[in-house]
Each structure stands twice: as C-alpha cells, then as structure tokens.
Amino acid sequence: MTAKQILKFDVIGYWSEVKLDIIRKYASAYSRILAARENPRLYHIYIDGFAGAGINTSKATGKLVPGSPLIALQTEPSFREYHFVDLNPGKSQHLEQLSEGHPNVFTYNDDCNTVLLDRIFPKARYKDYHRALCLLDPYGLHLNWDVIATAGKMKSIDMFLNFPVADMNRNVIWRIPEGMSQYDLDRMNAFWGDDSWRQVAYSTNKNLFGYPEKEDNETIADGFRQRLITEAGFKHVPVPLPMKNSQNAVVYYLFFASQKPVAAEIIEDIFQKYRK
Q: What CA–CA distance (Å, rounded) separates 92 from 52?
C-alpha cells in the first residue's frame, strides 16, 4: 500500500460504539453456549458481511477502537472459523494483516450478496451440526433480501442486521412519492425483497397534496420485523434497537433474528439496557 493509499479508518459515533458493545456481549454468550454443547458437538463460525478494516476511530475520544472483526477474534471461547467480507480492497487487505497467523480466518474482497450465498453460508448447514453468528451491517441499502431470507431458512444462523432507515427516508420513502430515481427504487426493492414496502411505508390517509401519508420509522421497522418472521422464517425477532446520530435522529435500527428463544432472551436483556 503506497503513501497515497493509506487507509483511513471509519470514524464512529456513540451509537456505533453501543452496537459494537452489543455484538461483543452477545458473541461472548453465543460462543460460550455453543462451545460447551455436547451430543452432538456443534461447530460454530462467525460471519461478517460488511467487515470494514477491523479498526475504527472513536468520534468522542479520537482513539482507535476494535471493529466487529477484532471483537470476534478476541471472543473467548474462540469461534471455529471466521469469515470477513468487504468490497473495499484496502479494508480487506488490512483485515488480512490483522488476522495473519490465524489459519481459521478467511477474508474476501468481494460483494457479500454473492459470496455469502455461494461460498460462506454453505459452511453453516444445519444438517452438518454447523452454526453461525452473522453480522450484516451495510452503510445503506446495499444488501439483498436473498441473503437475509437464506440466513433465516437455513435455521442455523443467528443474525444481526442494520436496517438503514435513514437511506430509505432520504432516497426512497418521500412524503411526496414522485421523482425517485429508478436506481434507488431498485435498491429498496432488493433490500426488502419486493415492492410490498409501499403498503407498510404509506397509510390509506391522504396528505395536503393528495398523496398517501408517510408512516413513521417505527411502523416501517415493525413491518420489516414481521417480514423477517413470516417470509424469512426466523422464529424470534425482538423489537429492534433504534441507533441515533448526534441530533438524536434515528439513522438505522439494529435487528437481531434467531431460531432459539434463549438467544432472543439474551438480546432482549442487552437491548433493554440501552433502551433506557
């Protein structure tokens, strides 16, 4: 990497640090429970679909803080395998350097929408007694529903998911729903899986301009929560945690989805501390 290509770590705010703390706490509980399992013994792996460089810069302190890949690598007991994906070649290269000496770490400079389905999720098949904790943390509408639905239907994956409501509101779900680009509509349909988001995002009431009234963020997030249950097949999807910016506006919702009630109970307990 040349001097002109020096990697700049992502600068993260308070709620992003909260998210990392939540991942740290759940990963520890998850790995402890699965590593202790016998008859049959389970093989548990960690998957990060938008892994980043592995290190971030705290906006509050200016200090470097571990990102989700490093948190996973530091989790005890250890996962059996780690799969880190990022489309940015500089970040992927940095992840390779961070994980050097760990033969059970695999990095992919690729689009997670392809590589997760083709190469990584098949390593977490239920019938093989493999299980996975998967973090899907896109910056915006850069994730396809096929990935989310496959994770649910495999019955072997616990999933954290960034629901990017700010990107939706900025580019798609407008109070006057005209003039949206086809590119943004396609991104929204790909993330949601179809265009049924329109029935969730707009009410039957009309605004002053004669258009259907836009629903609030909580209603849109709950519509997606129901979709994770009914369409993706996750049995347990707690109410997501709103993640905010410095102006206290919701930027995204942190979802968790699992097949196990004990997993939902652990997350509910963690989420509740931050809801207060």
A: 7
